[in-house]
Specification:
Length: 304
């Protein structure tokens, strides 16, 4: 899943594309019939059978490119035109951990004034068990000075999460124990989809904004899609007979789930973690992302 950080001056927030394939970043894998809540997925309190199924989720190393276009705009403050591109590179394994490199370049034309250009980049590493997460993110709008976030999150023995930030300012944060990281988020979404779960709620930390935000997320998973993908980039043997599901993730500011989401991310999610047909909903406008290029990369096997 494509589950991407943005500073306070940014035009867009980075979607969690690891959740896409991010951000993203979730469910109870068949042993629980009701929607999962964040407290249920922490390794310290999750039943062994559920955690084992999540740990066994295979993720494909791949490189994908998505072209962005304006799908919908509402209100006088929304852009009249938009275009852009997402480049997403994901690799790794449960034993070696996962590396994600992401860049989103977006041009927005407001109703009045010059075109604004947002350039968002991120590089992250998450260990295979979801216990640590390192991140470096940079966001630049037009020719303004870039916003940078640099830090590392670690799940300590008691289960809580400690974050050491280097940028934008050096500080240490303590997060709740039921927070998870983006790749683990993606694995729970896939486990939920395979188990037939339709809803999932978790708290996700992805290092975005100024590195101190937790997002409450609600994920809805639809029934498996049986129609062929439209874009030629997805017509490869590895995806030809692979299951995929329509997924929608809403990201809320912490403690504000009764309000409108900060943004909503929709996509088709393949069983191996690859995403297509992106929809990035920022409230007053929606961007569509069509996969134009897909390259599968070697995934090293873990020692037996």
């Amino acid at each position: 899943m494509v589950e991407f950080p943005v500073g306070s001056r940014s035009l867009l927030r980075r979607p969690s594309f690891t959740a896409i394939g991010a951000a993203a970043s979730l469910a109870c894998v068949g042993l629980i019939s009701s929607p999962l809540l964040a407290g249920d997925i922490n390794p310290a309190v999750t039943p062994a059978g559920i955690q084992a199924s999540v740990d066994a989720i295979p993720l494909a190393s791949h490189r994908a490119v998505y072209d962005l276009t304006l799908l919908k705009a509402v209100g006088s403050k929304s852009p009249t035109e938009a275009r852009g591109r997402i480049a997403f590179d994901f690799s790794g394994s449960p034993c070696e951990g996962y590396v994600q490199n992401f860049r989103q370049l977006t041009e927005l034309q407001p109703a009045e004034g010059p075109t604004r250009v947002s350039d968002m980049r991120s590089a992250t590493f998450e260990d295979g068990s979801g216990k640590s997460f390192a991140f470096k993110m940079e966001t630049k709008v037009d020719d303004e000075q870039s916003d940078e976030v640099d830090g590392r999150a670690q799940r300590v023995p008691e289960g809580a999460v400690s974050v050491d930030l280097v940028k934008p300012k050096q500080t240490r944060l303590a997060l709740e124990r039921d927070v998870i990281f983006p790749t683990e988020h993606l694995k729970y979404i896939l486990a939920a989809a395979k188990a037939g779960e339709k809803a999932l709620e978790v708290k996700v930390y992805d290092g975005s904004d100024t590195g101190d935000k937790i997002y409450e997320t609600t994920t809805f998973v639809g029934p498996p899609i049986d129609t062929p993908a439209e874009e030629p980039a997805a017509h490869i043997p590895a995806l030809e007979h692979m299951r995929r599901w329509p997924v929608t993730i809403s990201y809320f500011d912490f403690g504000k789930k009764d309000e409108s989401p900060n943004y909503t991310l929709s996509f088709d999610l393949y069983e191996n973690g690859i995403s297509r047909a992106l929809r990035l909903d920022y409230g007053d406008f929606v961007l569509a992302g069509q996969m134009t290029s897909l390259e599968l990369l070697p995934t090293p096997a873990c020692p037996k």
